[in-house]
Amino acid sequence: MRQAPTTHVFRALADPTRRGIFEELIRQGEQTVHALTRYAGVSQPAVSKHLTVLKRAKLVRHRREGRETHYCAQPAALGAMVDWLRDYGAFWRERFDRLEEVLERMEE
Amino acid sequence: MRQAPTTHVFRALADPTRRGIFEELIRQGEQTVHALTRYAGVSQPAVSKHLTVLKRAKLVRHRREGRETHYCAQPAALGAMVDWLRDYGAFWRERFDRLEEVLERMEE
DNA sequence: ACAATCAATAACCATATGGTTATTGTTTGT
DNA sequence: ACAAACAATAACCATATGGTTATTGATTGT
């Protein structure tokens, strides 16, 4: 059974270790697998597998540079999630007000 | 290892069948397990288990009425996801513009 | 009273998942 | 040339997951 892209994104971010890796890439920018392994608290192969899952969801992109591989976040893939929330979550107010503030700050 | 509430929400919505049940509850409002089973395309026990997972994430609430149980969506639990997106997804523009449109329409 | 309906639980199963250690293939520094 | 470093892959393992059928408990209609 082929998975819809939305499901790929949701599933990829469902695991806390994997979400942590993605968050780290957002915060710190491009990182090598080595650096991410130091951060993640699991083995290097585990990190590589997580990165594969994130890559399948298009949440990360990689760039080879000699013996090291640099990964960076591609937050555009979060679009699927934002769209879904707009469709199914926007009925409910409040939290979106705070999001609106963020948007206003972004206008500056 | 205890799971953070954010992880509960992400995990609950990662499964397509479960997400479908939640979407149905958002769209159609309160439903009995029976009605959801007709919709979901899996067995009644499977639906019950999915509802348990959604309940753990506080995405649904239930109300007993005689022999039937009525479930309804609690979209407030999506707040965890919106917050997370604001923190890690808001760096990136475009899709948020469309979300902004939604917010503007909601002003009316 | 009793058959039927509804929903939860139990018991089970196959597969997916998240982790490990070991290995391999490159690339790099000396 | 060669040892070390980096990252991917292989092989493996325990447990979680998503499904099933069977059963149970409660409620309802006749």
What's the total number of strands of chain A? Answer: 3
> What is the overall number of helices of chain A?
6
Q: What's the assembly state of these chains?
A: homodimer
Unreliable residue stretches of chain A: none
Order of helices and strands of chain A: HHEHHEEHH
Give the overall average pLDDT of chain A: 86
Characterize the overall form of chain A: elongated
Rg of Cα set of chain A: 16 Å
Largest interface, per-chain counts?
Answer: A-B, 36 and 36 residues
- Largest sheet report of chain A: 3 strands, antiparallel
Strand order of the largest sheet of chain A: 1-3-2
Q: Roughly what fraction of the amino acids of chain A lie in strands?
A: 5-15%
Distance between the termini of chain A: 46 Å
Structural class of chain A: alpha+beta
Q: How much helix is in the residues of chain A?
A: 55-70%
Describe the model.
Two copies of one chain form a homodimer. Chain A is α+β, with helices and mostly antiparallel strands and 108 residues long. Helix content of chain A is 63%, strand content 13%. Chain A has a three-stranded antiparallel beta sheet with strand order 1-3-2. In chain A, helix 2 packs across helix 4. The longest helix of chain A is centred in the N-terminal third of the chain and has 13 residues. The mean pLDDT of chain A is 86. The interface between A and B is large, with 36 and 36 residues. The structure holds a DNA duplex (30 and 30 nucleotides).
